[in-house]
Amino acid sequence: MTSKSLFFKLMKEDFKTRVWTLAISILIFFFSLIVATAMMISFNIYNNSTYNYSDDLAINFMSYIGISNPFFGIIFIVLSLVMAMSGFSYLYSKKKVDMYHSLPVKREVLYFIKIINGILIVVIPFIICEISASLLALANTGKIGVVIAAIWAIAEWTLLFILSYFLTVFSIMLTGNMLIGILACGFFSFYFPLISLVLKGYQSTFFDTYYTSGFIIENVLPNMSSFMLMFNIFELKWLTRIIIVILASIAFLFINLFLYKKRASEAAGKSVSFNVIKLPIKAMMVIFMSILMYLLGYEVMNHSIVWGLFGLIVSGVITHCVMEIIYNQDFKKIFAKKIELLVLIIISIFITAAFQFDIFGYDSYIPSASQIKSTAVISDLLESNSEQYYNKVEISDAYYDESFVDVDYASDSKIEADQIKKMDIQNKDAVLELARQGIEAAKYDLEPQGDFDRVLISYKLKNGRTVGRVYYLDLDQSTLGLSSVYADESYKKSNYPILSQNPENIVSVDFNGIMDNDTHIVFHDDEMKKKFVETYKKELMNLDYETKLKSYPFASIRFNDDFMEGALRKYAGFNYTSDSTSATYSKWENIYASSLESVGFYPIYPEFNETLDLLKEMGVEITYIFPAQYVESIDVSYNDWENTTLDDNNEEVEPYSSETTPKTFTDKKDIEEILDKLVVCDSPYKENLNEDRDYTVIIRSGNPEDSDYRGYNSYGFKKGNIPEILKK
Amino acid sequence: MIEAKNLSKSFDNIKALANINASIRDGDVFGLIGTNGAGKSTFLKVLAGILKPDSGEILIDDENVFENITAKEKFFYISDDQFFFSNTTPKEIIKFYTSVYRNFDVKKCQDILKALDLDINRKVNTFSKGMKKQLCIAIGVAANTRYLLCDETFDGLDPVMRQAVKSLFAKEMDERGLTPIIASHNLRELEDICDHVGLLHKGGILLSKDVSDMKLNIHKVQCVFEKDFDMERLKELDIMQMKNSGRVHTITIKGSEEDIREKMESFAPVFYEMMGLSLEEIFISETEVYGYDIKKLIF
């Protein structure tokens, strides 16, 4: 039986043998925390005249110590390696193992002594230095938040270090000498993220309808590594990441203990401690290298299967040879286990063939209607302004004395992921028909040109899975399906947040019309506000796809809540002076309508009669077409696509090389005829659906000082809406 | 008492121990001899609970040793190349083992080290191979365990030190019944200390006998017979080996001293003398019975 005193005595003795690691730990944290904080303070004092000193210092300090700082991630990875090696490298030496394992001490006691000391040697200096640094920051900022942030950082970094430490110990438990142990650390740090990249590479290369690789390849594999986890985990919510790290740490604590007890003493000095893992690890390495080199050979050598196979076989054989040399620690065993090599090469070839020739029918996948719970369809053919509703306005008070308003732009992937989650289209037949058309188009490997556009179809299946495919559809052939999807209530509601918004929260609207025909309206009458918002919602909900095709949104409108109104005020106050806008706008607030144009604008079609009537009622002067009286001339170029040289990516070799010499129209009658047919869509919500790509029209307008319509801009026509004057 | 029952241990495809059965009585000095690779160290490591046997068991007082603290507290294992923490001194090593072995006698250890003229404050990495062995022995003895497992412990000790260690063992055996178990490839090293010897060869025990029994049952007689003596009469003796030098015969005979003397006197030799056998000679004789050439095994 091991008494408590024996445990602590042994801990003390073990600590003595690892005292050098304590010195490393203290030095690292002293410089990275206390000295770095002192430097930060000194730097901020020096720049005191420019910045808000205490706010800036507090933000810098909190950002520096937080878990999003990769510098500390690297520090803790290095320390976890040092602590694991100093604690458990005795397992690599027969001499040391003989001594430790002959002692009348249970192996689990030895294990926990090593583990606990390894943690304490790092964590105690870290806590002391972190608290000292936070007190330094507190003394210079007076903000208690820095201490709270430090305590939080201590908790999170400690948990991350413990997980990384346990994973390094895991590598040691599986190996029998230090070099192989370090290689194993590398294997467990990078194998799964790399295999995820290779699989994604395979899918995107060989599957025409590839969308995403699914949760396991996209989210699980890249993070099955303490190394990657150190740098990625801050992206998760705090509770989620803490739970993940704690559960993973507990799991590895006991997995390591199990391995430690199972590990034979004679494993010291061997390459791998458990023979049973030799084949799986070798298989993982050989298959990974083979399929990686196939992909590289295939891609680099211009889609050559022969070169791909050459890369696969050569890298498979070399990897197998290296693994056998490592396993046997004997170069003469380079060609050992030839049958296993052959089987692994065959497996690798099968895997590559499964992707290359789509053996499992990824591209032709289409679920039956009975399997589908609901669907989502996302495409610029349906809506190309979704980012308007995902970009977020942020107000920061910290950096400067005056408020700073900025836009947090949403990524396309985030927008798509959210729309897929929200969208529940029930018109399965229409969606499946679109999918069938997409599969047919994919078979012919058509390059996306003209009105071919990307259409993402996502199926929420009854079994709980969500499956997505990307197709390239021709607008002309898919109009019916797209029209049905656009008519779906769920589609509209998931695309346009205003449709689910309560009018009570809205305080103002921004009307943004042709050129500077902009108006900011603050609602003072709740009845009018409610009526206006509901009218717009009704007309947007009733907007059909056919209208989108034949018409165009000549203006945009934004519905502002209190926060947005405040943000616009601050933004305008910061970015404009009254002098710079007085010449253009009848009132200062109208500048709001052209501020932060990437956020929250919805379309106004000429067909939105009721909305337009209400806007007029509220005093908005609406211009439906570009006013001819401001136009000096119009240049029209014809795009000669047939005689254009295109490169491999279907881009013109020289930009605008297809354009003919523009023809200039200055005659009032000609100008009016062109303007009447022109799509003047230059407000924030833009729609170029069904646009004729043969003509480019540039309007030159004069009288720049006192006009809303100054400068020049480029426009096009809708298909089939070309003025007769141009056809001549 | 230590008992090994059908003990087997393999390393990959190499059989290090093959169905070993042996028992080690308390208070005896057990010598384990064999060539390099015979399995001596493996046997000791299994006995010390370092290695887990593939089959069979090794018991100390009827308790399995592997991962059994009660059993492990009864012995101290000295490996052929003992590990010491880097940059450490005997003083610090004593402290470490004091925390592990509850009966560790610090004073005894210091006394032994003093007697061996080892400085307890000197860094161990400056010690010679022999000094390190002495340090191991001092710690092993001071651990006050019932058994002391020594793997090639006498290797590297000079003859004087070897004698000093043997005396130390004898004293400990006398005072507290220490049972040293000594593995060695050198039979001569164990000559005057072992009570019981086990001969290991290719992972198996060729023989395991009390030295006294072997000595009682084998005798060497040097004799000169009358010229007309009928040498055929010697067949009445259980002769294991006979060498002749002129008329002087040196005969190794199996049997009790009393019986041999009685027979020899009945032959009316001109001269005869009973001579003592070295352990080496006993082994030569014993292993020949099994068809082994002992000289190839252990010398």
UniProtKB/TrEMBL annotation, chain A:
Transmembrane segments: 20-46, 71-92, 112-138, 144-167, 179-199, 238-259, 279-298, 304-327, 339-357
Keywords carried by this UniProt record: Membrane, Transmembrane, Transmembrane helix
Organism: Lachnoanaerobaculum gingivalis
Keyword Cell membrane: no
Every DUF6449 domain range: 459-619
UniProt-recorded name of the protein: ABC transporter permease
Keyword Transmembrane tagged: yes
From TrEMBL, chain B:
Positions of the ABC transporter domain: 2-227
A Pfam cross-reference name: ABC_tran
Keyword Transport: yes
SUPFAM superfamilies: P-loop containing nucleoside triphosphate hydrolases (SSF52540)
Alphabetical UniProt keywords: ATP-binding, Nucleotide-binding, Transport
Matching SMART domains: AAA
Stated name of the protein: ABC transporter ATP-binding protein
Species per Swiss-Prot/TrEMBL record: Lachnoanaerobaculum gingivalis
